[in-house]
Amino acid sequence: MAKSEATLGACCLAELLGTFVLVFFGCGAVHTAVLTGAQSGLWQVAIVWGVAIMVAVYIFGGISGAHINPAITLAVAVWGGFSFRKVVPYIASQVAGAFLAAVTLFVLYTPQLEDHENKLRVVRGQPGSEATAMCYGEYFPAPNEKNLFHDGKGNVHMREDLVPPATALLAEFLGTLILALAVFAFTDPDNRAAPPPALAPVFIGLTVAILISVIAPLTQACFNPARDFGPRLFASLAGWGNVAIPGPNGVHFLTVYILAPSAGAVAGGGLYRLVLKPAAPAAERTS
User: Fold this and answer.
1) Residue 148 pairs with which residues in a beta bridge?
2) Helix spans in 121-224 (H)
3) CATH number of the domain that residue 48 is part of
4) What is the spatial distance between Cα 30 and Cα 40, in angstroms, rounded to a whole number?
5) d(Cα 155, Cα 63) in Å, to the nearest integer?
6) How many CA within 13 A on the CB side of residue 210?
7) Counted domains in the chain
8) 10, 14, 56, 73: which has the fewest C-beta neighbours closer than 10 Å?
9) Is residue 202 part of a domain?
10) pLDDT 10s digits, 171-230
């Protein structure tokens, strides 16, 4: 007797918990890197994100598919036969999971956040507090010590000229396109070059890790609207205010971290389904 599909409620719970796991570990690594210096380099943060994806998919993939990313949910709805009626519930669950993970990290790291702000001479909610808000939402360029400067008048600013909005948008679009391309290719049963199904989460996680290694210095490497918006929303309510939403980049928090990844994922799924898969020799396809 065939096993019935999980209910929508069960799938939404899996997406909420899966995204919680992803953001708790991933943003947790950002917290430890920014606030305690626990990570010795970008790759250590990147690989934590990659392993977090593997863990979430292995735990929750059998229930909901473990999209844990609104951009991927949208892409599989457009190209993968996923029901459009499930898109909004999935995305709402993903954002909720990301928000709850941010709450949890804030509770755990409040003393370290305050200490770091004191060391940098920034006031939460004022310009310059992107240096701690970056533990939650994302900014371009990444607001680290290299990209922050004091103007001699007690104000702290970011070197926004280093990453113009068009560059940030392209980076997020391209990064998510590659991610979606990998997801579609690694999970396609007709792709004889794909890893065994049980190993697909490993290769997807590694793809995210190498993408972060290249793009994080520019935009902090989002590729996931829930990962950005859930924690960003929390940060706006937890004292960072306008520094979180809309942030110093204004409307570009929407274009770079929500619209660009969504468009990139749809483009990546389309590239695989419309161009690459049909180009494979007919003998290698089962449908």
Assistant:
1) 158
2) 130-133, 165-186, 200-219
3) 1.20.1080.10
4) 12
5) 50
6) 8
7) 1
8) 10
9) yes
10) 999 999 999 999 999 999 999 999 999 999 999 999 999 999 999 999 999 999 999 999
